[in-house]
Design brief:
mainly alpha; about 200 residues; single chain
Amino acid sequence: MPRVAAALIALVCWAGIALQFSATYANQHDVLLTLWVLGRFFTIITNLAVGIAMTRIALGGRVSPFVLGGLTLAILLVGIVYLTLLRGRHPLDGPALIANQLLHYVSPLAMAAYWLIFVPHHRLWWSAPWLWMLYPLTYLVYVIGRGAIDGRYPYPFIDVGKIGLAQTVINAVAIAAGFIPCGFAVVWLDRWLGRAPPSG
């Protein structure tokens, strides 16, 4: 059953990415340029990481609880940031609309359910959230570096060209301020779910 569930989540991620590729390609008309455009989005990168991990599990491979916990936290961040900061900014239809639903709604909820039900618990350390934080921090450095090259930024709250570097950093710190407590909540829940049943 865990492998079947993993396969379904992988299918959601790959389908969402493929549909988004199709929608973006329709505007860019170039494969490499389409990949370059998609490669700036945290949503795409995180769904890609989840898709790879879930594909590995579906094929009988192993992914550590630490990695799965971090991926769950990251993909939930995708959904939360979209719902609170990005939803409704651009009208969508066709493949782009379906991709949006899969990548921002279905995959975060499905991954959270998978983590709750199938991932072994009581395996996470209290230091894990600080290590998980390296992923969005690395992304931030990467996307600012990309923006310095082509002048394009994926999200308005990290658009250095429009709001400046100082405000971008403030916004990133504000998001991190929510990410870290959520990480500790994941560790707490992991330990609570993995608690030993009472004896006797």
